[in-house]
## 1
Amino acid sequence: MADTPLIGIIMGSTSDWETMRHAADILTQLGVAHETKVVSAHRTPKRLYDYATSAAGRGLQVIIAGAGGAAHLPGMAASMTHLPVLGVPVESAALKGMDSLYSIVQMPGGIPVGTLAIGKAGAINAGLLAASILALGDLALSERLQAWRTAQTDGVATDPA
Ligand SMILES: Nc1c(C(=O)O)ncn1[C@@H]1O[C@H](COP(=O)(O)O)[C@@H](O)[C@H]1O
């Protein structure tokens, strides 16, 4: 996307992309400039430090962070930026994402991470929530978001089959 990114989507591994692409898809649908990066608190700590400490200065307004297993990425990102951080627990093979969820949601008071549902639904909702945060100060985006929600409502069938 050519515009300066307003939302950063980071994830612990390329293996998380299958989940996190749904956040990116939503933002693309809503016309919100965003970037996607692989950043790991465990495997690339300096990359995370550089990313989180430079995020606000680069113009990002919200960070979406997805990780699985011992998912320290969202919390560590939140510890190094005042931007809102939305955490997506990626579904792990061993524990079905319960490990990811507990790792992300139980932050100590003072460093919030807005934690979404495990997996695809969480990624979709992270994208929508990030857009709605931006829409507080962007009327055109607010109207696109409301249109998206109306279209979703209109697309719900009345009959099950
Ligand atoms: N939870 C984290 C962090 C982190 O929190 O920094 N870095 C990688 N990971 C996670 O490890 C899982 C397996 O990664 P691989 O598939 O690369 O082995 C991924 O879900 C990733 O988010």
Note: The chain has six helices and five strands.
## 2
Amino acid sequence: MKILSADQTRQADQATIQAEGIRSEELMERAATALSSWLMERVEPDEPGEIHIFCGPGNNGGDGLVVARQLHEAGYAVRVWLLPAPKHSPDFTLNRQRLPEELPCAELNPQKLPRLLPHTIVLDALFGTGLRRPLTDVAASVVQHLNKAQARVIAVDVPSGLYTDAPQPADSVVVQARYTISFELPKLAFLLPQNAPFVGQWHVLPIGLNEEFIHTSLVDTYYVDAVLLAGRLPQRPQFSHKGTFGHALLLAGSRGKLGAAVLASRACLHGGVGLLTVRVPAAGYDILQISAPEAMALTDPATDFVTELPDLKPYAAIGIGPGIGQEAATRDVLEQLLREADVPLVLDADALNLLGANRELLDLLPPDTLLTPHPKEFERLTEPARDDYHRLELLRNFARQRRCYCVLKGAYTALATPDGTLYFNSTGNPGMATGGSGDVLTGLLLALRTDQRLSPLDAALLGLYAHGRAGDLAAEETGQAGLVAGDIVRYIGPALQKLTTLPARL
Ligand SMILES: NC(=O)C1=CN([C@@H]2O[C@H](COP(=O)(O)OP(=O)(O)OC[C@H]3O[C@@H](n4cnc5c(N)ncnc54)[C@H](O)[C@@H]3O)[C@@H](O)[C@H]2O)[C@@H](O)CC1
Ligand SMILES: Nc1ncnc2c1ncn2[C@@H]1O[C@H](COP(=O)(O)OP(=O)(O)O)[C@@H](O)[C@H]1O
Ligand SMILES: [K+]
């Protein structure tokens, strides 16, 4: 899915209205109908208490008015509160007139804001994508009142006060919604950790915005779902052999962190690699052979950490980092690897920390290298970020400047490409916030970079998506708290299988 800016969202509305020859109020009716249906599926009409709908002066408020009318007609007890404003949008005014007379509707009085019992359902239709500046005066008081009330707030399109594609000034007043119900496409603001307290759980409801407009809109930010990945993972050919999928080299592990090497190795094997050789310190020989017998162990002369780079000739792709430590000799191995490798590289964990501590090595990164830092590792490679938007800018700039593919791990892991495009992953769950999940990702990405049939972009997108999907499937079995990194490995196969393009049926 594309992620549109606030301006493009408005243009998409206009394009839909023009292409379908409808009036703007009809599109508003469509959006509100989708939202009313969502609500009616979750709330019974006889649930005690009224649903309070807070409406602003623009089309977001207009949406709220239509939902109020529709819920009322369906037998729900509804009460509408209007924000005092000097002027209103035409569709607001129209739908204000369409409110049935018996439906309670009053203007908000800042001196006497309505009392809301805990758990009351509140619809926040104050402001949407038309917000131009932070909330002040009555609007700010109303939002502060809603936030204090412990009500069940459902934001219409956007939590009021939140900018959809830029950071708002510190201490801005923003609705803290439990749910945000948006239309057609997700908004960038929903994907950033700093906005989680406002957005809550978000859902996007389709309202049939003009496909042609969305298709031809130029964007540099995408939300990666199964549709975006369709056709990118080819089936394994009937007459394939292990050479078809390539031979990977993984350099990983040091004393006390050989589990990282094992997890990454097992993930690489389950990711479909043809052959895997793992360079571990001598202390890791038995551990690796027993825990990942399908991999070949190529032990280093040193007992506790990796000190020598093996001959690179046999390998189609190379991964380095999980649990490898930051000894000086290991740093030298990394430098030699960056100088000598002419196959795809995947850099993770301590390989990234070594790059951060020895920034001169960054100049040696071969083009199209894939780096997988979490935010702290990324900060070591670049600089501390002011906020999540700034961090994304740093990520784009890093990928452009270094001509690499750089991941920023977390919920909605982001991937920046050498041309500065951002992709946000849609799979995964908080159960994956557990030691070793990142090592599993590295192994899987190494397998996909070894498969010569995949472009660097497709390998990265498929790997991130399948890793999160495997985590989701694992969590169904183990629960989130019970999930450990090894569980993710067991579900890599099913996750990849689901993405595999099957031939069309006869
Ligand atoms: N245009 C359309 O056809 C559709 C619009 N939709 C809804 O329309 C919304 C966008 O509507 P609008 O563009 O009217 O914008 P909003 O309703 O978000 O707000 C615009 C109004 O708020 C005022 N305003 C902006 N910032 C303010 C601030 N800080 N303090 C006080 N007043 C402020 C503006 O002057 C304007 O009067 C979307 O979020 C969505 O909910 C949906 O109904 C889908 C269809
Ligand atoms: N809340 C979350 N939602 C989705 N994915 C998550 C969440 N927390 C962690 N993950 C995923 O788990 C992995 C953790 O990687 P990392 O921090 O490197 O762990 P480790 O270093 O322990 O292996 C990343 O791929 C990240 O995207
Ligand atoms: K809103």
Note: The first helix runs from residue 6 to 20.
